[in-house]
Design a protein that fits this description.
With about 450 residues, this protein is an alpha/beta fold. It has a single domain, classed as Alkaline Phosphatase, subunit A. The strands form five sheets. Strands 1, 4, 5, 6, 7, 8, 11, 12 and 15 form a nine-stranded mixed β-sheet that branches. Strands 2-3 form a two-stranded antiparallel ribbon. A hairpin with a 6-residue loop joins strand 13 and strand 14. Helix 11 runs parallel beside helix 12.
Length: about 450
């Protein structure tokens, strides 16, 4: 009677813990060789707080007295025509929903929607002149995350992982903490590796006993058995790879097995926030129902960058998130309420631990919102002029850079395109955006694309 080896697919499907390791193909960043910095970096790591849905800049960080003055009136003809999704240009202007006040010693104006973040005004460099190219969520999510409005390009985090690698062999370089409500417009391509090797894609994690689903071996599988299974699987993988050495996905999975095994011990400790003090929990708002979830993920972001993760993205906003078409006041009261205290707590914690000096914190969404009303109380999408902010990494705070017009419709002064924003982010990490390239389709591709992009020097002072 002859005996044949089971197929590689069937063996992996039946091996204890194999499913989680296959799913962890993106965990192989720590095994890859980084390209390194091109000059002395200001930032060693990044925490990107992504407000999915499009927060309203004119209600949060971009005060417009003229918008209050002309509220209820139609858009003046002097502002010209504007592309909108739902023909809201004919609708009356809507005044800011909260009062703006000078904050800190700098006097930087921030809305009453964000009283906790406002206490860090002197740490924030608010960019008031961001602008993109699409009025739709998926394309704008892709552009802010990959530099392109169409899916298929590597994300910022993937480029950072490729350029710098991880500082911890037991952790990936790029981790994503999605909103547990799900529903990101555009989906996981926002943190995908595109045409870069699969090893550089973002690894999604969560709090709790299972930070990565299916990572743990099945019940009854001992550590010794798991090691033997892994060794046998790797020997089959290597035999298979010898005939298919150019298969990127296969190479990434082989490396992922090893890293996934190491993470079985590293990840549970990483997400065990019970090790933090009650004071830290209160600082992030983890002791309050409204702020618990986002507070936990902000705290996890701090724990990750402490342990060598290069970039962590923390998403706020489920299917609709900050997408305030119907009622800005109601929507932003909810989402500012969920995120304001945790973000302020993160900044305080990083500063107390001496981490803010070389950690870049980013806050932004995929676009802003229109100064005109929608359905009386809401606002439509606005990619033509909106806000984000930077903190840490020796970026000078307590100031605003750039400006939109008198009602917040378009960026007009010191305009910062998405590609300029990405070039500046890489520069802060010590990377020349023109030198960080990958050969694809016969061309040296880069995050900032083929068109001209500039490091925004005004953000570096």
């Amino acid at each position: 009677m002859s005996w044949t080896l089971p197929s590689r697919r069937s063996f992996l499907a039946s091996a204890g813990g194999g499913a989680g390791m296959i799913a962890a193909a993106g965990l192989a960043q720590a095994e890859t060789v980084p390209t390194g910095t091109h000059f002395e970096p200001r930032a060693k790591r990044v925490i990107w707080l992504f407000m999915h849905g499009g927060p309203s800049h004119v209600d949060l960080f971009d005060p417009k007295p003229a918008l209050t003055k002309y509220a209820g009136q139609p858009l003046p003809a002097s502002f010209g025509s504007v592309l909108t999704r739902r023909d809201v240009a004919k609708n009356p202007l809507l005044a800011p929903l909260r009062r703006f006040r000078p904050r800190g010693q700098s006097g930087l104006e921030i809305t009453d929607f964000l009283p906790h973040i406002a206490t860090h005004a002197d740490d924030l460099c608010v960019i008031r002149s961001l602008h993109g190219d699409s009025v739709n969520h998926p394309q704008s999510v892709y552009q802010m995350n990959t530099g392109r409005i169409l899916m298929g390009s590597p994300s910022v985090g993937s480029w950072v992982a490729y350029g710098l690698g991880s500082e911890n062999q037991n952790m990936p370089a790029f981790v994503v903490l999605p909103d547990p409500g799900g529903g990101l417009k555009g989906g996981p391509s926002a943190w995908g590796s595109g045409y870069l090797p699969a090893a550089y894609q973002g690894v999604t994690m969560r709090s709790g006993a299972s930070p990565i689903l299916d990572l743990h071996p099945q019940p009854g599988i001992t550590l010794n058995q798991q090691q033997r299974n892994l060794a046998f699987i790797q020997s089959l993988n290597q035999r298979h790879q010898q005939q298919r050495n150019d298969e990127d996905q296969l190479n990434a999975r082989i490396k992922a097995y090893e890293l996934a095994f190491r993470m079985q011990s590293a990840a549970p400790e990483l997400v065990d926030i019970s090790r933090e003090t009650p004071e830290t929990h209160r600082l992030y708002g983890i002791d309050q129902k409204q702020t618990q979830d986002f507070g936990e993920r902000c705290l996890l972001a701090r724990r990750m960058i402490e342990r060598g993760v290069r970039m962590v993205q923390v998403y706020s906003g489920n299917t609709n998130g900050w997408d305030a078409h119907d009622n800005v006041d109601q929507n932003h009261s909810e989402y500012c309420g969920k995120t304001d205290k945790p973000i302020a707590g993160l900044l305080t914690d990083l500063k107390q631990r001496g981490l803010l000096e070389d950690t870049l914190v980013i806050w932004c969404g995929e676009f802003g919102r229109m100064p005109m009303s929608e359905k009386g109380k809401g606002r439509d999408h606005n990619p033509w002029g909106y806000c984000g902010w930077l903190a840490g990494a020796d970026v000078s705070g307590g100031r605003a850079y750039g400006a939109t017009d008198d009602i917040g419709l378009r960026a007009t002064e010191d305009k910062v395109s998405v590609n300029d924003f990405h070039a500046t982010l890489l520069h802060l990490l010590g990377i020349d955006h023109e030198q960080l390239t990958w050969l694809h389709n016969g061309l040296d591709q880069r995050l900032t694309g083929p068109d001209e992009a500039h490091v925004v020097q005004g953000l570096l002072t």
